[in-house]
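R.M. (postdoc): so does anyone remember the format we settled on? I'll just put the structure tokens first.
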């Protein structure tokens, strides 16, 4: 159990270091040496957990998406009434990006240059949020859910707004 706990702790530190290092240098200029130095993890430990820099990046990507999804769902669950729930969930997502933009930047900006694995992750993340919007629409007061294309448009629009704000350094405006 102690070894599993140590690996979990190292993984968490590597995720944080990947986010920070990519924010400082960009993905291409980031090396495993940069990540392990910031995380305080040995090279051997890194390679026991990840095959390479890209695998660490993709695992970090997954953690950032899972955190955003959880915060959004939690905000939804804490409220009553469809309009309150929609407002709270959207606000939680946007506030999180505004307050901690490095993880979302990794997901929405830096992942674009990684390659097919990252593009696949990006598509899966979009589908996840499209399902959240579609599920939310099913409990709307009028009882009429959104068409799939509507959910896709909402998620795409929000994603584009966040993307632009991150690129322009204007995430606080979210």
């Amino acid at each position: 159990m102690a070894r599993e706990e140590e690996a979990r702790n190292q993984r968490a530190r590597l995720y944080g270091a990947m986010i920070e290092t990519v924010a400082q240098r960009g993905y291409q200029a980031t090396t495993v040496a940069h990540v392990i130095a910031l995380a305080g993890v040995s090279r051997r430990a890194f390679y026991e957990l990840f095959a390479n820099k890209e695998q660490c990046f993709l695992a970090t990507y997954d953690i950032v998406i899972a955190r955003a999804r959880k915060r959004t769902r939690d905000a939804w669950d804490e409220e009553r009434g469809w309009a309150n729930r929609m407002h709270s969930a959207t606000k939680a997502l946007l506030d999180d990006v505004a307050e901690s933009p490095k993880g979302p930047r990794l997901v929405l900006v830096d992942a674009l240059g990684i390659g097919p694995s990252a593009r696949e992750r990006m598509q899966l993340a979009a589908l996840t949020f499209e399902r959240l919007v579609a599920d939310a629409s099913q409990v709307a007061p009028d009882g009429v859910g959104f068409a799939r294309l509507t959910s896709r448009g909402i998620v795409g629009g929000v994603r584009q707004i966040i993307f632009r704000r991150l690129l322009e350094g204007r995430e606080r405006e979210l």
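R.M.: ...and that's the designed sequence above, right after the tokens. Also worth knowing: The chain has a mean pLDDT of 93. The first helix runs from residue 2 to 25.
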